[in-house]
Amino acid sequence: MRSASHPSDTTNNVEQQIRALEELDLREHSVEDLLPRIRALLEGQTLRSIAFAPGLLLYRGIPCEELPARLSEVSYPPADRVQHDQRANRAGSPMFYCSATWHPPFFEAGVKRGDKIVITRWKTRTPLRISSFGYADVCADDPHADREQSLCEALNQLPDHVRPLAEFLTSAFTRAAGPGQEHHYRLSAAIAEACQLGEAFDGLLYPSAAMPSPAHNLALHPRCIDEEKLELQYVEHLVVNRVEPASIDVCSLDFAHVAGPDGTLSWLGRPGNWVLREGGAATNCRFQNGRWEAG
Fold this sequence. Notes:
With 295 residues, the protein is of the alpha+beta class.
C-alpha cells in the first residue's frame, strides 16, 4: 500500500529538479530537450490563472524608422521572421508580446535617443485567461519602484511550499539575454510551451526584464489576434528624446486611429494628442449671452 507523500517531500523534489535545471548549459540543450523536464517539474503543481474581463488595454512597441503601412506590420510577426528563440517562444513560432502599461515597450525595445518607435494600443474584446507564476502580478506597476525589492516582498507572501517553484519560473522570465545569448531564452520558452498557450491559456503574464521597476508584460498566443479577441485602438509613431532608468521623454510624429478593411493604416499626417487618442470629436463653443453654446 502506497503511503501519502508529505508536503516537505514534494518541496524537496521540486527543489532538486530546479537545481538540476539551473545547472544545465543551455547552449547544449534545445527547447525540445527542456520541455519534458519542465513538464515533470510542473506535474501536480498549481499556477495562478487570471481572468481579465473585456476592456483591458494593452500596449505593444516596435522599433520603426518609417511609417508602417499595414496592420500586419504592427501585429505579431510572421513565422519566417522569428529566427531566434525568444522569451516565450522558440524560433519559427511567433508570439504577440505586449505590456499592461504604456512605458515598458520602450525599454523592451532598447531604444536610445534619436530612435523612432511605433506604439500601438489594443483593447480586449473578449475575456482573456492568463497564466501567472503566483506573485509577480500582485506587484504594483510603478515605474518608480524597485523591481527586485517589490518581487522579493511579493514572493515572501507566498506559502513556503510553493515559493521555490514561483521564484524559479519568474527568474527564468526575467533573465537578461543580449544579442548572441538567445540560448538563455530556451528555458523560458520551454516553460511557456508547458503552459500550453493558445489552448489552456490565452497568454502568460511575467515581469519586464528590461524595466528596473516591476512592470507587467504579457505574451499572448497569436490566436488572440486571429480570433479578434483584441482590437486595435491606435498606432503612434514617436521619436525618443531621452531615456532614463525610470522615465522616458518622447515626441509624437504621426498618428493613426484604425486600419481599413484591407488592413491599411490611415495615418493622419500630424502628431497625436489626447483628444485623438481617446477617440473624441472636437467642436467649438462660444460664450454668448451668459451661456456656452456649440458654435
